[in-house]
Amino acid sequence: MDYDLVVLGGGLSYTGLEILKNKGLKLALVEKDPDHLGGVCLHEGCVPTKLYLAEAQKLLYFKTSRLFEGEVKHIDLKRLKAYKEELSEELRKGILSLLKGADILYGYGELVEPNLVDVEGKKISGRYVWINTGKRQERPPEGYITTDQVFELEDVPDSVLIEGDDPIGYEFACFFNALGSQVFLNLDADLSFMHPSLKIRFEKMLKESGIKIKEKKDDASLKIYAKRRIPNSDCLKVDISKDKYGHVLVDKGYETSLKDHFAIGDVNGLCELAHASRLQAISVAKRLSEGRGFYIPPHKIPYVLYTIPMAYAKVGFTKKDLQETGVEYTEKGITLRPFAVGSMYSAQEASAYLYFDKKGFFLGGEVLFPFAWEVIGFLTSSLFGEFDINLLKRIPLPHPTLVEILNIRLL
């Protein structure tokens, strides 16, 4: 074998490769595009979308403040794009530094035989193979752009129509709305996973911010097709098990139907989140280097819908999950209305629901809060720590903060 491990795809697999490199394994990483090292997360997904939303949130604070006086500045989209590109380049350099000592082959790679990868005519073999090819967007209908192409824009459109079935459409709706565009949101994204009360509050928040829900504007200045991505598994020219969508099927060790071939990240369809991909890569690296990895059930991976001014987040079992499985549970509802921190963030409508089993152990929770992406970390730790309600009540949390409300209301 040429290598101990060959990796197809340069996404978040690098977190696991760093572990294996330090263990002395000979590694090869195949990436189609040198400017796309780091994958969708770094270039079109997590990093740029949250960067754009962070800037939009700053603008929104000024627009909605009762005390701010003077003209509210706009966002220079051209400068924001340039900053995004600078950040992406800086992070790519960081990845290259982490992978120093591994061979990086740029070009389109295919798994042509078990343990054998062809990179545009150059064949390399590996004792182990990781499939980390991620997902791609479909070609949009004529007159539309994809969410990836949003990051090429340099001017703020007067009006935006967003269609498709990917919940990320909600994030882009909030972004353009904060910038001053008239936004028409006509998504078919399923929000049934939300607690009914949170879903009502979520949609109310969007409407009150000025976003037009379930409305079309055929002559919008910009039309965005927010469609769920499809797996990049057509590069696998071997007999390997897939589902009907093309996801590569894996066991709890992320191993495919081919021995010593692993699929990690979005391509396996288990949990299409960057932090899940990172943990899967670390797990497989631990298995190869130490003989044992780990498995995290998808429901224990925190999920966030990064909207503004409030975001939705969940971890563990939701109300819908518990009702469908028939598990006996207790529900604790929480609202920010009686607390000063709710007024500080102009978020009196913020709410959360926590779920406990009949013995009082924490099963999961979902929140609609400002900075929900930070708050959900506390609930994730509580879930993994197997906390019960009595322990949750006693945890000291700083005052005044959003997260402290989650246990104050349990007293």
Automatic annotation (TrEMBL):
<dbReference type="Pfam" id="PF07992">
    <property type="entry name" value="Pyr_redox_2"/>
</dbReference>
<dbReference type="GO" id="GO:0004148">
    <property type="term" value="F:dihydrolipoyl dehydrogenase (NADH) activity"/>
</dbReference>
<dbReference type="InterPro" id="IPR016156">
    <property type="entry name" value="FAD/NAD-linked_Rdtase_dimer_sf"/>
</dbReference>
<comment type="similarity">
    <text>Belongs to the class-I pyridine nucleotide-disulfide oxidoreductase family.</text>
</comment>
<dbReference type="InterPro" id="IPR036188">
    <property type="entry name" value="FAD/NAD-bd_sf"/>
</dbReference>
<dbReference type="GO" id="GO:0006103">
    <property type="term" value="P:2-oxoglutarate metabolic process"/>
</dbReference>
<keyword id="KW-0560">Oxidoreductase</keyword>
<protein>
    <submittedName>
        <fullName>Dihydrolipoamide dehydrogenase</fullName>
    </submittedName>
</protein>
<keyword id="KW-0285">Flavoprotein</keyword>
<dbReference type="InterPro" id="IPR023753">
    <property type="entry name" value="FAD/NAD-binding_dom"/>
</dbReference>
<keyword id="KW-0676">Redox-active center</keyword>
<dbReference type="InterPro" id="IPR050151">
    <property type="entry name" value="Class-I_Pyr_Nuc-Dis_Oxidored"/>
</dbReference>
<keyword id="KW-1015">Disulfide bond</keyword>
<keyword id="KW-0274">FAD</keyword>
<feature type="domain" description="FAD/NAD(P)-binding">
    <location>
        <begin position="3"/>
        <end position="214"/>
    </location>
</feature>
<dbReference type="GO" id="GO:0050660">
    <property type="term" value="F:flavin adenine dinucleotide binding"/>
</dbReference>
<dbReference type="InterPro" id="IPR012999">
    <property type="entry name" value="Pyr_OxRdtase_I_AS"/>
</dbReference>
